[in-house]
Every structure is written in structure tokens, then in C-alpha cells.
Design a protein that fits this description.
heterodimer, A: about 500 residues, Rossmann fold, six-stranded mixed beta sheet, B: mainly alpha, two-stranded antiparallel ribbon, 17 helices, 2 strands, globular, ATP binding (chain A), nucleotide-binding (chain A), ABC_transporter-like_ATP-bd (chain A), AAA+_ATPase (chain A)
């Protein structure tokens, strides 16, 4: 199936989200869509999947113009989509999930599970997906759940498969597997639209690359283009992808974590006897696939979660019983992994968010009354210093782009003297330009002598910033390694491979 | 309740900032005020919201915009006009010969509507006495509305105004008719007792929520029942019951415990306005208000920023209860009502409406309280002019109904939807 997009335009009021986009997806090609956040990739895909009506332009399938008023129409036309957040029912089996919405019955409303199972098995074998139709979805690893989504789309006879940031949740090994599957699909004639902002992946698997910036296709590139070229197209200016940093001048341990164990509300040990130390003037990277205890570990460091065993020492003092407020006062800076959830108050203005954990200081309040002039001045200074792109200081943070929201959080945490900086996914969902900026600030914080802990599921980020890397798997730190270890080896550790030589963990 | 955020379609793009009564920036949702950039940001914002299943519940989605409120009032008045016309005997009579003299129908309808609405206006604000009555009727609505609004801003739905008012009235009344104090001191003591009673009743709910996570909607409703039961019990005891009476009714408070008058109205009116100013100051200018609003809008981020959620919940409910206690003074200490089972009327429930209509801001609550107070007073005058006074209840109900269904108002007013596509944005689009 050949899918053409001709002059597709979408306006919201006077704002043009997509401006005359032309794209052609040839049968059996992997077409990568590269663009920063807010570039208009989502709007484009929403139109393609029948969720939005185009203002102008048309979608043409095999030479015939079509119009989709709902995802049902798009599916009918052979377009399938795998969302970034899976749309699966965890307590159903794979087969049940696949037949969901168009259940086949054997009369009297009895579900024909066998037929669904059969279909899943068939597709799984044909595309080498290795999915067991009778497995419960909640028991499956994320990578396999994603394949269930792919099967769901394929079972609808999708000829064009849209994959929305599919690698965000995967381990390096799972990413390799996914790419293998993509190649297999392609070989059997399915076209793939692969949305991502990761340059490495685009180059590894794409046949053609279309770069979108500010709602327009700014160019196409071959997978042979260099990462720097692609980044430049994406951002519109030259970007430095490497973090330039001096060798760390490591001081004494600032934060010592000793045998910390955290048990989650369901009674599972999510952090198991973790010990490490973060030293002044050094970046310690904690690598690991999402959901291996990093979240809980980090929360316990700030006091959001109380460790069930073990000690956390800040400059030799036990702070494991402290709440977040005390920890913040003690000089711990904290950039949470989910900024919209834990990092800012969406309805609050930029100005208010910039003092969200500073308002109680003498500087910003006196006798229970906020000092508006000081708060205003602080906002102006931070906005300038961190180049936060906002209409005004009183604009609600929820109206900012992801990168600028993150800058608000980062600016706030960097606006007081820190002993330890804990940054979890500091650049998640942030555009390339802002990533560069945030990384620079983190390194300069390190150079001021702060002990920095970076938690990231992005190996690139861990590599770029860290002076030492601790790898977490299944609630444990399985190894602490130098950043010159090859990616593959760290990838293996992240996937739980046990090593003899690198287990110098402590 | 967080399902509200996870609905198949984000129902309304979320409103920008309900926390800004002085409207420093335009309502981000106002379609006419949105420039191009804003529209894009809005879309991003609404996508970010949809993107986050199970995010903290933002009560502000229930608040109407100023435009919707104005539209709701207008539409309610129009429907009210139709009701007035068809409930008028002369109009109905003219229908029987409509085809011969259609003009009769229209003049009679016009007369009926005019006389009813003009009576409504005259009765509520048409004279000095009417204005005084309106102000006195509005005072408890404003105070109790502030109670609901304040809790709302902290993310708490205070359905317990009724119970807090009841306990407030009980305490104020008890001090008012049993203690024997010099006049200046007596009224202060009685007022403080009422405020304190309400504060304790609300504070317990806050404490329960803070300590155990008990949902305030459920506990406040239960505390309403308990408060009524406490009042019923008290009124059967010698300490409260009017001597020589079998009715569950107390004596009125002593004259020394009555609220003094100022500018022809009891001082409760002034207190209500002062309370509104105080609540505004707390919300917008104090660190407590900062915490309160932050917790109300995003409890997780607030906790991460080092705020104590239990402290905020407890204090918010304590203050809300105190405001409800203040509202209870109008009856027992203002009008001099004796304690009975109907001593607080339905003020505690009307307050929820007032606060929602006022967008949970102090100024809005004052305006909504005045409106409802005026309608309630004007209803009496309207009845004298031949229209059932229940019509004002219908009007109030219609206003609230339309406020609660903004899409309906927008449809009726033909207000263009903003952005067109923002409401159908898919979930799960991170980029």
C-alpha cells in the first residue's frame, strides 16, 4: 500500500500546527519521522489516524483520496498504530487483548478464544514475534507487550504501521529485537512510519528520514546522514551532541547509601540492599531499564519514601528518617523523573513554580506573607539565566513546551546552594536544544563541587554525563563501571546478565 | 475520581488558572483571547494532561468561566420568563383566542414577565430596606461559600458546610442564651464560640483526611448527619430546650449577645466582606495560601517540594469550618433566631452552589452570594406580585445547571469552540 500525504495542513485558530506537509510512504519502507517536541509530529499522526480533521490537504491511499473521521476508518484503510502508552488490558491474555473490540463468538455470546489464539500464533510465527497467545499481558515484559500491540495492528490487516516513540520504554537489547521485527515486517511488505527523536535508531533502521520542524517538512535525509547533520536539521541550528567536560576532580563522599531496602505498598522489595556513594565533584550515573527500582531508590534519597532498612548519610549524618522538606533544606536538589507529576504545579505561573520549594525561605516570605517583589525579581532572573521561553512570568507552566517546563524545574533546583543534585531523567521529552543546555548546567554544577546523581534510562545520556556508572537491575546495583565500558556490556547488565569481572559493585 | 481525567476524550481543555482572581492574564481558554501561540500551547497542555493517566485530580475543571456564568444567568432568566408567562392566568386565558387577538397574548406575557422581574429587582435592591435585607440574607451565603471555596482551592470538596454551620450555631447559641456577660464581651464570646465550633467540626474532617486518608466528601456528609443528631439531642435537654416547651427549640440569645448594627445591617455583613478579604489575602498573598493552592492543584509536586500535605488538609478544613461557623452567626446572633432544627436552613448546601458559581474565588463568591441573597429576598416581593416564589428557586437551579453544563451554554450562546480539534486529541502522544 502506498500512502501519500499531500499538502496536509492543520490550524488551531490562527496557529498552524502542520503547514502543507507532503510525505510519501512507499510500500515496504521504513519511513522515519524525526522532529523535536511540538514540531507537529503528533498532529500529523493524529490526522493520519483519523483523530483530527485536516484543515487543508488530503490523504491518498493507493492513488485514491480518503478521509478518516475516526480511527475505525483509518484501521479499515489499513493503517495501524502502536501508541507510546500501550492500550492493553493487563489482566487479559494476549489473545483476548487482540480480539478485544471485535470479539468473535460461537453463537449465544460464547467467545471463540481458540480462533483468536490461532490468529495470534499465526501472526507471531509469520513475523517471528515469539508471543504466546495464552500468556497474561501483565506477566509479559514491556518489549513483548509492545509486540502484542503490533500483533493487534497486524490482525487488522494493517499495511502501514505507525510506531510512536516505540523505543522509549525498551532496553538496548529489546530495541535491537524491535528493529529486527521492523525489518521483518518490511520484508513482508508492511510499511512503517517510525516516530522518534533518537538519531542513532533512525540511522540504524530507516530507509528514508523526513525531518519536521515547526510544522513543516524541512527536509529528507538518507540514513547515511551523520547524527550532527540530522540534529541540525531538526533543531535548525548547529547542536553539540557531545557534552564537553573536564575530567572530574573528585572530592570526598557526600552522600553515602548503605544497604537501603525499600518495600513497596504491595509488599514487594523494589530496592534490595543497595549501597553506593556519591562524591563531591563527580557525576554518578545510575543506568537501568525503567521499573528496576531506580524510582523508589531516588525517592528514598529525598525522603519521599522511607527506606525499610539501611542508612542514608549526608556528610556523615543519617538522613534516612528525614522528610523531603528537611532533605531540601539540607542541600539536596531534586529533579523528579515525571516533571508534570512531581516537578511543577501546572496551573501555577512560571513565577510561582520557580519558588515552589523556596517560598518558605526568608528571601521570598516574611511572617507568613509572600514577598511579591522578590518573587517577581527571582522569576525574571531565572527566566533570563535559563532562557525559559515563556510569554511572561505569569503564564501557567502547563502552557509551556516540555523543554521549557523542564527548564523551570531545573532552574528552581539550581537556584540554591546544593550539596547533592539528584536528577532523574533530566531530559526526558526535552528537545535536542534544551538537552544540550541542561547537560551543560549539570556539568557546571558538578564542577562547582556538587555530588551529582543522574538516573536515566537513556544510555546515551548516562554515557555523556557520568564519571561512574552504576547499573541497576531488579532492585539491585549489579555493577558499578567506568563509562568507557562498551554499550553492549552495559546493555547486558541492564538486562540482568550477571558478570563476574564487573561486579565490583560496592 | 481521577477517572475524570482519563475519559475517552479530554472533555474540555483544562482551564488555565482559576487561582488568579485579579485576572492578571487572560483566561487561557477564552477562544477570543487566544492568539496563535497560545492555541498551540493549549493543545500541548491538553495533550500533556491527557498524557498522564492517574495524574492528580484537578478540581478546577469543574469551575465555569466568567462567560459561561454570565450566559447561564441570562439563559436562566429567559427560561424563567417563559415560566412566568405560562404560570400567569391572564396569559393562559389569552391563548384561547390567540388566533383572533394574538397581540393580547404578547402584551399579557410581557406584563407578567415585567411585573415579576421588576418585583424581583425592587424587592431585593429597590429600597434601602430591601438592600439591607438582601445584605443580611447574603452574609451567611458568602461566609459559607468562602468556606467551600477555600477548601476547594486546597483540593477538598467540603460538603460539610451544613454540619459545620449547625455546630457553630449550637455553640454560639449556647453561649448566647446561657452565659451572662457584659454586652460587648458577650457577643464576642458567642461569636468566637460559633466560629470555634465550626472550626472544630471541619478540623476533625481535615484531620481524618490527613491521618487516615478518609475521603472528605464521605466524612463531611456523615458529619452533617451527626451534627443534626447532636442538635436534636441537645434540644431535648434542659440546658438548651426552652423552659416549659415540648418543642425542640431553645430560647433566643440574650440581647447582649446580638450582633450590633452598623449602617442599618447587623455586623455579620461587614464580617462577611472582611472574611472575603482575609480569604483572598490568605490564598494569594500568604505562604499558607501558596501551599494550599499548590496542594490543591498538584499534591505530589507539593510533597516533592517539601510541603506537608496533612498539615495543609487539616488547616484548610479548620479554616473552612471556621468560615462556616462565621456563617452560622447570622441566624442566631444576627436575626436572633432561637435554636431549632431549621436554624441554619439549607445555607450549607447553597454555599456549594455559591462557591462553584463564584469560581471558588473570594470575589466571585461574594458576587454569587449577593446574587443568591438578592434572589431569595426578591422572591418574596415577586410572590406579592403574583408569581410563585418558588420561581426564584427554579432560577437558581437553572443557573447552576447551566454552569455545570458549560457545553450546553456554549451551544445555546453559540460561543465558538476553541481550536476545534483540541477536544478530540488522542491520548498517548508524547512528542
Amino acid at each position: 500500500m502506498k500512502l501519500e500525504i499531500r499538502g496536509l495542513t492543520k490550524r488551531f485558530g490562527s496557529f498552524t500546527a502542520n503547514d502543507g506537509i507532503d510525505l510519501t510512504i512507499e510500500p515496504g519502507e521504513i519511513h522515519c519521522l524525526l522532529g523535536e517536541n511540538g514540531a507537529g509530529k503528533s498532529t500529523l499522526m493524529n490526522m493520519l489516524y483519523g483523530l483530527l480533521d485536516p484543515t487543508e490537504g488530503e490523504i491518498v491511499v493507493d492513488g485514491v483520496p480518503v478521509s478518516f473521521s475516526s480511527p475505525g476508518d483509518a484501521i479499515e484503510a489499513g493503517i495501524g498504530m502502536v501508541h507510546q502508552h500501550f492500550m492493553l488490558v493487563p489482566v487479559f491474555t494476549v489473545a483476548e487483548n487482540v480480539m478485544l473490540g471485535r470479539e468473535q463468538t460461537r453463537g449465544l455470546g460464547v467467545l471463540n478464544r481458540r480462533k483468536a489464539s490461532h490468529l495470534v500464533r499465526e501472526l507471531s510465527e509469520r513475523f517471528h514475534l515469539a508471543v504466546d497467545p495464552d500468556a497474561m499481558v501483565e506477566d509479559l515484559p514491556v518489549g513483548v507487550q509492545q509486540r502484542v500491540e503490533i500483533i493487534k495492528a497486524l490482525s487488522n490487516d494493517a499495511k502501514v504501521l505507525i510506531l510512536d516513540e516505540p523505543t522509549a520504554v525498551l532496553t538496548p537489547q529489546e530495541i535491537d529485537e524491535l528493529m529486527e521485527i521492523m525489518r521483518e515486517l518490511k520484508a513482508q511488505g508492511t510499511s512503517i512510519i517510525f516516530i522518534t527523536h533518537k538519531l542513532r535508531e533512525v540511522r540504524a533502521v530507516g530507509d528514508r528520514i523526513s525531518v519536521i520542524r515547526r510544522g513543516k517538512v524541512v527536509g529528507t535525509a538518507a540514513p547515511t546522514a551523520s547524527e550532527a547533520e540530522l540534529a541540525e536539521m531538526m533543531v535548525g541550528r548547529e547542536v553539540s551532541l557531545r557534552v564537553t567536560k573536564e575530567a572530574a576532580s573528585v572530592g570526598k563522599p557526600v552522600l553515602e547509601v548503605r544497604d537501603v531496602t525499600v518495600i513497596d505498598p504491595r509488599g514487594h522489595q523494589v530496592v534490595k540492599n543497595v549501597s553506593f556513594e556519591a562524591r563531591a565533584g563527580e557525576v554518578l550515573g545510575i543506568a537501568g531499564v525503567q521499573g528496576n527500582g531506580q524510582t523508589e531508590l531516588i525517592k528514598s534519597l529525598l525522603g519521599l519514601v522511607r527506606p525499610d532498612a539501611g542508612q542514608i548519610l549526608l556528610e556523615g549524618r543519617d538522613i534516612s528518617r528525614h522528610g523531603p522538606r528537611q532533605s531540601l533544606e539540607d542541600g539536596i536538589g531534586y529533579i523528579p523523573e515525571d516533571r508534570s507529576h512531581d516537578g511543577y504545579v501546572g496551573g501555577f505561573s512560571v513565577r510561582e513554580n520557580l519558588i515552589l520549594d523556596l517560598y518558605r525561605h526568608e528571601e521570598f516570605s516574611r511572617g507568613g506573607a509572600l514577598r511579591l517583589d522578590e518573587i517577581r525579581a527571582n522569576a525574571e532572573a531565572r527566566i533570563a539565566e535559563f532562557d525559559i521561553r515563556t510569554e511572561s512570568a505569569s503564564t501557567p507552566v502547563s502552557a509551556l513546551s516540555g523543554g521549557n517546563q523542564q527548564k523551570v524545574v531545573v532552574a528552581r533546583e539550581f537556584s540554591r546552594p546544593l550539596k547533592v543534585l539528584i536528577a532523574s531523567q533530566p531530559t526526558r521529552g526535552v528537545d535536542v536544544g534544551s538537552i544540550e543546555f541542561i547537560h551543560k548546567r549539570i556539568v557546571s554544577e558538578r564542577d562547582k563541587g556538587t555530588a551529582v546523581i543522574i538516573v536515566s534510562t537513556e544510555l546515551d545520556e548516562v554515557y555523556a554525563l557520568s564519571d561512574r556508572i552504576a547499573v541497576m537491575y531488579d532492585g539491585r546495583i549489579v555493577a558499578t563501571v567506568d563509562p568507557d565500558l562498551p554499550r553492549e556490556d552495559i546493555g547486558l547488565l541492564m538486562a540482568g546478565a550477571t558478570t563476574d569481572e564487573e561486579s565490583t559493585a560496592r | 475520581m481521577s477517572d475524570l481525567e482519563k475519559g475517552p476524550e479530554p472533555r474540555e481543555p483544562r482551564r488555565g488558572t482559576p487561582h488568579d482572581p485579579d485576572a492578571e492574564h487572560v483566561d487561557v481558554l477564552d477562544p477570543d483571547a487566544v492568539g496563535g501561540e497560545d492555541a498551540a500551547k493549549q493543545v500541548q497542555a491538553s495533550m500533556a494532561a491527557a498524557d498522564r493517566p492517574g495524574g492528580p485530580l484537578d478540581l478546577s475543571v469543574y469551575l465555569p468561566t466568567a462567560k459561561v456564568t454570565a450566559g447561564a444567568i441570562l439563559i436562566a432568566l429567559v427560561i424563567g420568563a417563559v415560566l412566568i408567562a405560562i404560570s400567569d392566568d391572564g396569559v393562559i386565558e389569552s391563548l384561547s383566542y390567540f388566533t383572533s387577538y394574538p397581540w393580547d397574548f404578547f402584551t399579557r406575557s410581557g406584563d407578567a414577565i415585567w411585573s415579576a422581574y421588576s418585583a424581583l429587582v425592587r424587592g431585593s435592591v429597590g429600597s434601602g430596606a430591601a438592600i439591607s435585607t438582601t445584605l443580611e440574607r447574603s452574609a451567611p451565603l458568602i461566609c459559607a461559600g468562602l468556606s467551600v471555596a477555600l477548601a476547594f482551592r486546597a483540593g477538598l470538596f467540603n460538603i460539610g458546610g451544613q454540619g459545620q454551620l449547625t455546630i457553630g450555631a449550637l455553640c454560639a447559641g449556647y453561649v448566647g442564651f446561657t452565659w451572662d456577660l457584659p454586652s460587648g464581651v458577650h457577643v464576642v464570646a458567642a461569636a468566637l464560640a460559633g466560629i470555634l465550633g465550626g472550626a472544630v467540626w471541619g478540623g476533625i474532617v481535615g484531620l481524618l483526611k490527613a491521618r487516615t486518608g478518609a475521603h472528605e466528601v464521605i466524612t463531611t456528609i456523615m458529619f452533617n448527619y451527626i451534627a443534626v443528631a447532636v442538635l436534636t439531642y441537645a434540644l431535648s435537654k434542659d440546658a438548651f430546650q426552652r423552659p416549659g416547651s415540648d418543642n425542640p427549640q431553645s430560647l433566643p440569645v440574650a440581647d447582649s449577645a446580638r450582633l450590633p448594627e452598623i449602617f442599618g445591617v447587623h455586623i455579620g455583613v461587614l464580617l462577611a466582606f472582611l472574611a472575603a478579604g482575609l480569604v483572598w489575602w490568605i490564598l494569594e498573598r500568604s505562604t499558607l495560601g501558596f501551599e494550599l493552592r499548590a496542594v490543591g492543584a498538584n499534591a505530589d509536586a507539593s510533597r516533592t517540594a517539601g510541603m506537608s500535605i496533612p498539615k495543609v488538609y487539616t488547616l484548610a478544613m479548620l479554616l473552612a469550618g471556621a468560615l462556616a461557623g462565621l456563617a452560622s452567626l447570622s441566624g442566631v446572633l444576627g436575626r436572633g433566631d432561637s435554636l431549632s432544627l431549621s436554624v441554619v436552613g439549607s445555607t450549607g448546601f447553597d454555599a456549594i452552589t455559591v462557591a462553584l458559581l463564584g469560581r471558588a474565588t473570594p470575589l466571585g463568591t461574594v458576587l454569587a452570594g449577593l446574587l443568591f441573597g438578592a434572589m431569595s429576598v426578591g422572591g418574596g416581593a415577586m410572590e406579592a406580585a403574583g408569581t410563585p416564589r418558588e420561581l426564584t428557586d427554579v432560577l437558581q437551579a437553572l443557573i447552576v445547571l447551566f454552569v455545570a453544563a458549560p457545553a450546553l451554554v456554549k451551544g445555546l450562546m453559540r460561543v465558538k469552540e476553541s481550536g476545534g480539534g483540541a477536544t478530540v486529541m488522542a491520548k498517548g502522544w508524547g512528542s
